[in-house]
């Protein structure tokens, strides 16, 4: 089910008693295996047919690729559990390698579910880090892929 933020407050003031809206789009998928909230996820290539785009798994930079479609908002302890994924927009706490700086473009890391500063080993950009990552967590903006 596609969702999006429809009501936007574009100025940065608190005129209506609320902070500026966060523009984001979420989709609900099924977990292929355990996923932790904040993990970068990819489609599960182990599935067949249309299930390839119904199931998501932790993303990792491997020989088979690793193109993140977004960041999980929910944790799943086992397969077949629903997981909301931000496929475009702001995420307050995403899994990002400690020390990645603000405004650094992100790509998938070798650690499952984590992103790092983009480099030649994986130049597929999945988003941008919005603040310096600490304890492997940072706010990010996810670039839309799906």
What does this structure look like?
The protein is mainly beta and 146 residues long. Helix content is 0%, strand content 36%. It is built from no helices and ten strands. The protein has strands spanning 2-4, 24-31, 40-43, 55-58, 70-72, 82-95, 105-108, 115-117, 127-129, 137-142. It has a five-stranded mixed barrel. A hairpin with a 6-residue loop joins strand 7 and strand 8 (115-117). The two termini are 13 Å apart. The mean pLDDT is 85.
Defining traits:
about 35% strand; Virus Head Decoration Protein, Chain: A; mainly beta; about 150 residues; single chain
In a few lines, what is going on in this structure?
The protein has 146 residues and is mainly β. 0% of the residues lie in helices and 36% in strands.
Helix coverage percent: under 10%
What number is the mean pLDDT? 85
First and last CA, distance: 13 Å
Q: Strand-and-helix sequence, N→C?
A: EEEEEEEEEE
As a percent range, the share of strand residues is: 35-45%
Q: What count of helical segments does DSSP give? A: 0
The major sheet is characterized as:
5 strands, mixed, barrel
How many structural domains are formed by the residues?
Answer: 1
Overall CATH architecture:
Beta Barrel
